[in-house]
Amino acid sequence: MKNNYTPVYGTGLIMLLLYLCSGQAFAQDTYTLTGTVTDTTGLAIPGVHVQRIGSLTGTTTNFEGNYRIEVQPNDSLSYTYMGFATQIVAVNHQKSIHIQLYPSAQALDEVVINAGYYTTTERERTGSIERVTAQEIERQPIANPLQALQGRMAGVEVVQRSGVTGLAANIQIRGQNSLRNSPNNNGNLPLYIIDGVPINSSPVRSSGLQTNNPGLDPLNALNLANIESIEVLKDADATAIYGSRGANGVILITTKQAKDQSGKLKVNARLYTGAAEVSHKMELLNTRQYIAMREQALANDGVEANEYNAPDLFWDTTRYTDWQEVLFGGTATITNANIALSSGNETTSFLLGGGYHKEGTVYPGDFGYEKATANLNINHHSKDQRLQLNFSSNYGIDQNQLFNNTLVGLATSLPPNAPELYTDTGDLNWENWAWEGNPLAQLEKRQSLNSHNLFSNLSFSYELFKNFRFKANMGYSHLNNEEVLENPKSAYNPDNWNNIYSSSTHTHIKRKSWIIEPQLVYDHHWKKLELNTLAGLTFQKSQDDLLVLMGNNYANENSIGNLTAAEEVRVETDQAIDYRYQAIFGRIGLNWDKKYYLNLTGRRDGSSRFGSENRFANFGAIGAAWIFTEEAFIKNNLSWLSFGKLRGSYGTTGSDQIPDYGYMDTFEPTPGPGGLYPVQLTNPNYSWEVNKKLEAALELGLIDNRINLEINWYRNRSSNQLVGYPLPSTTGFTTVQANFPATVQNTGWELGLTTRNIDRENFSWTTHLNFTLPKNKLIAFRDIENSPYQNVYRVGQPLNIALRYRYLGIDPETGLYQVEDVNNDGSYDFDDRVVVEHLGREYYGGIQNGIRWKNIHLDFLFQYVKQQNYSYLTDYTAPGNYGNKPIEVLQAWEQPGDDTHIQQFSQSSAANSAYANAMRSDLAITDASFLRLKTATLSYRLPIQTKGIETVRIYMHGQNLLTLTDFRGLDPEGGQSLPPMRTLTMGVEFNF
Amino acid sequence: MKNLKYYISFMLLLGSFTSCEDFVDVEVPAHKTVSATVFSNDQSAQSAMQGIYNELSRADFSGRMASAVTVLAGLSADNLKTTTSSHPELKEFYENLILPSNTNNFNLWSSIYNIIYMCNAVVEGVENSDGLSPEVSDRLIGQAKCIRAFGYFYLTNLYGDVPLITSTDYRTNAVAPQQAPQEIYVQMVKDLEDALELLPLEYPNAERTAVNQGTAMALLARVYLYLQDWTQAELLSNEVINNPNYTLLDSLDEVFLANSQEAIWQISPIGAGNSLTNTPEGSFFILNSPPGYSKPVALTESLIDTFKPHDNRRVDWIGTYQDETTTFYYPYKYKIPYATGADYTEYSMVLRLAEQYLIKSEALARKGDLNNAVIALDKIRMRAGLDPLSSIAPNIQQEALLDSIQLEKRREFFTEWGHRWLDLKHTGKIDEVLQDEKPYWQGAYQYYPIPEEDLQNNPYLTQNPGY
């Protein structure tokens, strides 16, 4: 037989089936053992996993805590349940075994961690994996799940760019690896995986001015309340199995799984409601101060006011409007309701849920966000556990009503005496407005976003032979997003209506993707040696469609958006992008005596984003861990040290996050009829970016694991940088895709500390602290002086720098800003930009406290970030110009000897030019560090003993309640965009 | 035996990987065409040329007024002024205090190079293709070279020393140093001579939107004038004047209509791919509402003062807009300010016959043939309803005649492709004239600054003096 097989699928499958049918005969003296599992108070524990050690046979306890299992007299059984210490009991011919489980002091070690293709435990993992669970995120009143991670994980930077709902957050895991960091070509996005299905993590394109940078979050339609856990994989050991897509880390989202086996229907219902407003407003000039500034500027310039140089001085100079209050000072209400039903028996369980979320905006007018979700999970296994099936599906629809302008810029710069918004008759007032027009007219430019999103996954697993399983994951995801931007005449001054057309822009985006991953899993024990192996394939096909239509010249304003009513419909863009991805991957995990661990992972990847010469590449990693507290000499001598592990890993990952078809030299149709034109420069020979990751870590548990400490050191080096290499426009374009002889290094220290400060029956207090000290550096860049990057990067410096003029203070003669002309050539250019300012985070962290007193639970998280950013002054014109200014300008220079950092009021060309130069100097970089009370929850469990109701909990939750910062713009993270919301909600949860 | 089953399973897995390696092959998507395919047949190769004409109506320097030669050079000279403070970057051009970071300046510069890239791509694509008929192949190379020369004419006249790019190879182009104007002119003459040889006399269709031999000749006449080769300038302009395709129209209202008999080359607004405007000039200049963000410029009083009241151009080509306090004058060569659906009656004029008369006149005057120079000049004066110079100043001297020609050029070609700005420079009068008009004027400002972005991305570029 040995020589008869042929590698033809049919034959092979038949042979496999033959083996399936042959089965494994049980020894003759097998018998049925029964028992009950209870906790120390005698209450039954349902769902305890009971397993014959050394085999895959096992069962779980039912709702009464009872179990029944086939055993042989010399077997040992293990009893596992999360939060309790695992017990191992020898069967020893007993017919029934009743077990009491004790709450585990080592519960943390036993937490099961999802590592993607396999699971591990907190105790045994060899890689760097962070985890947050439902309890930490589910009460946050936000639409986008990943925003909930802010401040909670070491090494994970989540930056919220604005308070606009639905906008993608900026996520970086262990720093910037790629030089490509623009919103539509970002090489630094992590890989998102929901229940095993990879999701395109690039933001969904939007044309609206509030949402176009960077776009919408592709995970918006996911229900926060249906997330069981989010794991973030960081080092080579954890990410190399994702090969070319693991360079920037992996975010694994696991939705809630059906676990119930009680046979009874369980209901979990939640409801919260609350209100939000912007967390910060700026202090601007009032009318008296503003008019004084303007008059002084004209006086300083020696110019008479006229309607062209000072239209604002011809308005009522006593009127005052707080434009921030009018334009984004509203209160948004939030409502959220969720229900989840679950039930099941010994072999099959289901979980069915639905959610609804609605929030308003802080803008005037009728805008807001709504989302409805449904989810289903079905879990089945055969009685002997050989067959396992799991199906999960998450469907969400959301609708975002906005308008196509930000208003924030206007709100912080309109003159405080700008004209009335309404006429006496209640219509929009257009009289006397300068070029910006009545700001409320912007609300007429409605933007509506509708999306449907489906994530669906089926996983199948069958034990072919003893310890040998065939598994298959099949996933499908579909995102459909439709955006309509209305541009009606009514948004413009009626004086101009005869040359303005009502128009609309329609964007349709479809992202479809399927994936199939067949795998083989083999586990084996030889006395003290344990082996876990895995081999698998990936086939993935994704299609991204984009269709942009314009409807022009609507006769009737009411029908804007209905293309049939447009006189002309034009197709702006029509493209379908096909992406294919294929891989073979594997893992070998070894451990000796639960003491020494070795983990080898590897992947060979092919991606359609590269030319045929460079399509495939190999990636791999090695990870090792040593639990030294298992060594007798430590166990016996250091009793206070309850757990100690040293681990490390090294390996390579890659990145294929580049635009599709870039290697093809192509022409596209011109917008005008009958033409073709080149739209990019082409380089057919680029290949993968390679990211080499090195990590070392120490994990300690002290005093019965009441103090848990983890310290990581990492060093990631990304080379062969694949960039849209900036070119002088004389080449015809401004970039070309190419590999660059540059190496970016991210090193850092990460610290996680969890302490159970007080642990009594009625009073407990735990603290979790995370801290990250990242260091980003461009360590090599061959010939940078002759490259387009000579004025962007500096070898030896971080990527995120600003090259600036040196600010010299205010010229005592002119009262204007001065910057240094370093080479004295009479002009200011990059040779004079000698000051290197570091932007971005210097270090950051979070501290979370959970305090419980009887039924009252208080939980709060502070986030701290130390960083520099551009000053808000860069968003303003020189002091003295038209437009309101921050209160700080009142310190403007008046006469020689004045010690100030604000130049003289003036709107002359000289003043504007001096101001522009100063905004390119180190003056315009300021400290933007902040300490923020990110979340706080106070909850109370009602002491209800009613039959049928398990628990009732009421709570209050606050988001962004307090921010301490020296940054004087709107927000230290978002700069001059809509600040994040300060939200207060009240909620109630039932379990019955 | 026991190992075999594992072995088979893993082999199956491996086998299905290697047998499907072409799974990751993707087709060229429907919205793209591979370059080699574009130049594989006459029809699609002509589409690539049509692409250039279409893009000229969208390119900043030619089709987007706020960064177009017409507006920026008009502001830098003494024909246009800004009327609002909401366009500080346009004001920089008006005050001749342009920052190297000025985005309008970058758009102007980079859009010319983008069109030059397309021309280079057509020249290379056609030269490397063996699937094209000789007629099409000649015509495409001739057209592409003519437009390339047109691009370089504006680059070198606006910026002085500029990189000379004649291929699509970005590796060498990214580090190309600047060449002196003389070098650029050598290339322009070469390209235009080639175009003269390759292009047919007639337009390819009823439209005057594609370039032909007449276009190349008209442009070459101007190039020789700037090179001070008076003989060639006179010869070529004269040949264009005698070309039966072109006639000086009596009615000034008809000059800028689509395919007018005076047009040598026009850009059709249809190329922009939308019907939001007719010509960009019409929508940008015509003041049918107060000056403001979308209508930021008007004609200067100094230009208005040069017209006699009965000059037909003052009457037909200049409009006025009055608000409570001020009268604004605007260019009214194009009459349609906004969209009229897909019906385009006006095209943007690039080259027209009137210029050839003035080139001829100047060349003759420079050579000392004052009589014939006056005859050519009077053609233009008389069309405008002015008395012929031959009758009012029969004994005019060379210097005065040259001044009259420039004055006529200013009145004839205001807000058309920066004639005034370039003429002030090629006649060497720029300092003399602008010193009185512009408070911040310095001689070095006759060249715009090289944009900051490109200085940053090409280390071999040097900034022009004065910036």
Helices and strands in order, then pairings?
The complex is a heterodimer of chains A (992) and B (467).
Chain A: H1 9-22, E1 31-38, E2 49-52, E3 58-60, E4 66-71, E5 76-80, E6 87-90, E7 99-100, H2 107-110, E8 112-114, E9 119-121, E10 129-133, H3 134-137, E11 156-159, E12 170-173, E13 181-182, E14 185-186, E15 191-194, E16 197-199, E17 227-233, H4 236-239, E18 250-255, E19 266-278, H5 287-301, H6 323-328, E20 332-344, E21 348-360, E22 368-381, E23 387-403, H7 408-411, E24 446-465, E25 468-487, E26 503-526, E27 529-554, E28 566-592, E29 596-607, E30 616-627, H8 632-637, E31 641-655, E32 666-669, E33 676-678, E34 689-702, E35 707-719, E36 721-726, E37 735-740, E38 742-759, E39 763-781, E40 801-804, E41 807-810, E42 817-819, E43 835-838, E44 840-853, E45 856-870, H9 909-919, E46 925-927, E47 930-941, E48 951-965, E49 981-991
Parallel strand pairs in A: 1-7, 15-18
Antiparallel strand pairs in A: 1-4, 2-3, 2-5, 5-6, 8-9, 10-17, 11-12, 13-14, 15-16, 17-18, 19-20, 19-49, 20-21, 21-22, 22-23, 23-24, 24-25, 25-26, 26-27, 27-28, 28-29, 29-30, 30-31, 31-34, 32-33, 34-35, 35-38, 36-37, 38-39, 39-44, 40-43, 41-42, 44-45, 45-46, 45-47, 47-48, 48-49
Chain B: H1 2-18, E1 33-34, H2 35-38, H3 42-56, H4 60-63, H5 69-76, E2 80-82, H6 88-94, H7 103-127, H8 134-159, E3 162-163, H9 170-173, E4 178-179, H10 181-198, H11 213-226, H12 230-241, E5 263-267, H13 280-285, E6 297-299, H14 301-304, H15 312-316, E7 318-322, E8 327-331, E9 348-352, H16 353-367, H17 370-383, H18 389-392, H19 398-413, H20 419-426, H21 430-437, H22 452-457
Helix pairs in contact in B: 3-7, 3-8, 5-6, 5-20, 7-8, 8-10, 10-11, 11-12, 11-16, 12-16, 16-17, 16-19, 17-19, 19-20
